[in-house]
Automatic annotation (TrEMBL):
InterPro entries: GDP-Fuc_O-FucTrfase. GO terms for molecular function: glycosyltransferase activity. One of its GO terms (biological process) is fucose metabolic process. This is O-fucosyltransferase family protein. The keyword S-adenosyl-L-methionine does not apply. Belongs to the glycosyltransferase GT106 family. It comes from Aegilops tauschii subsp. strangulata (Goatgrass). Keywords: Carbohydrate metabolism, Fucose metabolism, Glycosyltransferase, Transferase. The keyword Transferase applies.
Length: 140
């Protein structure tokens, strides 16, 4: 999502190169001004910003967080501040055995369906972007 948005997390030249390589996959992706987009609130929040938002909304460190996503850019280093605020951090991979996920791995829509089911059954849902799943959950 970060690559598709045209935004950056502020990770310097390496991040720009990495995300630039990913963005080349989309021939119709428009070029944007990432700094302007972030100032206007059009960029996905960093994991740390998500954690700070949840804290500001009154959620304590005992709350369980489920990240409905694929790979987070920056991996564990990027996730560390969120996990420090909310140690009960979960993903599809952490909640299931490898053999349970294997039939779904080659199908992104099926992986997204798992995320939808978990999010739909949650007590609260906070989106990090204005994607289709967030819209479907809000409508539901």
């Amino acid at each position: 999502m970060l690559a598709f948005s045209g935004c950056y997390y502020g990770g310097g030249e390496k991040e720009r190169r990495d995300l630039g390589a990913i963005r080349k996959r989309w021939k119709t992706l428009h070029t944007s001004n990432p700094e302007k987009g972030r100032r206007q609130g059009r960029c996905p929040l960093t994991p740390e910003e998500v954690g700070l938002l949840l804290r500001a909304l009154g959620y304590g460190s005992d709350v369980h967080i489920y990240a409905a996503s694929g790979e987070i850019y920056g991996g564990e280093e990027t996730l560390a501040p969120l996990k420090a605020l909310f140690p009960n951090y979960h993903t599809k991979e952490s909640l299931s055995r490898k053999d349970e996920l294997t039939p779904f791995l080659a199908h992104s829509s099926r992986m997204a369906a798992i995320d939808f089911i978990v999010c739909d059954g949650s007590d609260a849902f906070v989106t990090n972007n204005n994607g289709n799943m967030a819209k479907i959950l809000a409508g539901r």
